[in-house]
Amino acid sequence: MSDNKSLQARRERVVPRGVASATAIFIDKAQNAQMWDVEGRRYIDFAGGIAVLNTGHRNPAVMEAVQGQLDRFTHTAFQVSAYEPYIRLCERLVERAPFSGDAKAILFTTGSEATENAVKIARVATGRSAVIAFGGAFHGRTLLASAMTGKVAPYKRGFGPMPGEVYHVPFPTGRDGAGVEASLAAIAQLFATDIEPERVACIIIEPVQGEGGFHVAPPEFFAALRTLCDAHGILLIADEVQAGFARTGKLFGIEHSGVEPDLVCIAKSLAGGFPLSGVIGKAEVMDAVEPGGLGGTYGGSPVGCAAALAVLDVIEKDGLCARAEAIGQAIKERLRGWCTAGLPVANVRGLGAMIGFDVIDKNGKPDGAQTKAVIRAALENGLVVLSCGAGGETIRILVPLTAEDSLIEEGLAVLADALASTATGSVL
């Protein structure tokens, strides 16, 4: 079998540099929260395939469900010949969706498809075209999704012009004056100077920003957005692609706010590692699009549906929402202890087990270069962890919710060592 170095060389010959990898290791096998590369080296997984593996690598229940579906059929295209797993999954998603009234769901393949189709639905339902998103947001890499994403490099650079009528306002991170009032004032200013609210179809927001730095949208901000949307006939879209499916301690991150959205975008951990996404929405909104206006050849794959049904079972039977809360509390306590112990850690934040913190320099300022050094040191010692944030200054923890406590402790110890070994000086 090839080693990491030879595989990297082969990759560089045939795979374009536009698709980047956070590590130069090539995985041979994985189970729950552990991975082994082609050289047999073991890694603890604090990345979860970028929030895809809330139920862990190769969860036994998911694998059994997938094998059962493989023995029946793998594809018909739902638009040609429908199948029961699609219907059953939509029934369960609608049952658990954060709406008080009737709801419907449609399935796709990727997170970008989910966010773009949510906008399509909102435009038809409202008869309007404009979209409001937030600075630091990540909604995908396809063209409309890139336009909604609130970060130029690397997601927009060179790809312009972007689709029109997509506007950005500051997300209430709590930093540099970017609070709830400032964000609401920016929307008011947008309505006064750029576009009247009667032309806005939707506001799309992540309950916890992913690529933007794991900043949590305050409940009062969601309440204000709901009031604003109701006043102007605007639809509120919750992008739950990264925050959904027990990661934050609830099935959907917006549930922490007590606010009902109009549409919810889902993907990532929905199907435990198999490609599946979707949009759940209020029934009258979802039914606005005429037949044939939505869909996709692979959308709602029967294999993905089988996996997702098993994922929902695991979340319920194993109590993964409560598990996320317990994991998150323990990890945040540890991180806050590191702050007082002099490790270069600050701004610990997150909901449930969706946790981020900033790596800081000797002056106490967030430091993207230092964060990269920490991640490299962690990888050298068998821990895979990712960064995020406007300047790459944030380390995000997305360990599978099914990980054993002992494994989480082992991973945190590696992370602490990496922080200590790369520190550029005292931060006290």
From TrEMBL:
* Cofactor(s) listed: pyridoxal 5'-phosphate
Q: Which family does it belong to?
A: Belongs to the class-III pyridoxal-phosphate-dependent aminotransferase family.
NCBIfam families xrefs: GABAtrnsam (TIGR00700)
Q: Does the keyword Plastid apply?
A: no
The record's PROSITE patterns line, in alphabetical order, gives:
AA_TRANSFER_CLASS_3 (PS00600)
The answer to whether keyword Transferase applies is yes
- What does the record give as the organism's lineage? Bacteria, Pseudomonadati, Pseudomonadota, Alphaproteobacteria, Sphingomonadales
Under which EC number(s) is this enzyme classified? 2.6.1.19
Q: Which GO terms describe its biological process?
A: gamma-aminobutyric acid metabolic process
InterPro entries, alphabetized: 4NH2But_aminotransferase_bac (IPR004632), Aminotrans_3 (IPR005814), Aminotrans_3_PPA_site (IPR049704), Class-III_PLP-dep_AT (IPR050103), PyrdxlP-dep_Trfase (IPR015424), PyrdxlP-dep_Trfase_major (IPR015421), PyrdxlP-dep_Trfase_small (IPR015422)
Q: What is this protein called?
A: 4-aminobutyrate--2-oxoglutarate transaminase
Q: Name one GO molecular function term.
A: 4-aminobutyrate:2-oxoglutarate transaminase activity
Keywords (alphabetical) are: Aminotransferase, Pyridoxal phosphate, Transferase
Q: Which organism is it from?
A: Aurantiacibacter xanthus
Against PANTHER family, the record matches this protein to: AMINOTRANSFERASE CLASS III, LEUCINE_METHIONINE RACEMASE
